[in-house]
Design a protein that fits this description.
about 110 residues; mainly alpha
Length: about 110
């Protein structure tokens, strides 16, 4: 699992040169599909990691009087909200040649 806390991906929307994205595979749509699949992997990993961290604070009682806001839980949630989106991280990885992929048709040969 990569360390997404140290990523240099932008946290806001930026304009990208589509020719640069297309040049990696020779096909813009194939490049976007690769980025999309990687973004889904990243999203799943981040969601699992956040769920594990928040599980530590879970309360399994049904008593409404015991419900209170946990400051640590709020801080963890805020940290993950401020992280770059999975698509930004995946695009950054793709641009930096950190993603490997293979074409299924070429593997069959």
């Amino acid at each position: 699992m990569a360390d997404y806390k140290k990523t240099t991906a932008p946290t806001s929307t930026i304009t990208r040169d589509l020719r640069g994205i297309e040049s990696k595979t020779g096909n813009l749509y194939q490049s976007i599909a690769i980025i999309s699949r990687r973004a889904n992997q990243i999203s799943t990993e981040i969601k699992k990691e956040l769920g594990n961290k928040l599980e530590e604070f879970a309360s399994y009682t049904d008593n409404l009087e015991e419900v209170f806001e946990n400051r640590e839980q709020i801080e963890i949630s805020k940290f993950y909200e401020k992280m770059p989106k999975p698509t930004s991280i995946a695009t950054e990885e793709f641009s930096n040649d950190e993603i490997t992929w293979r074409h299924p048709d070429e593997d069959a040969k």
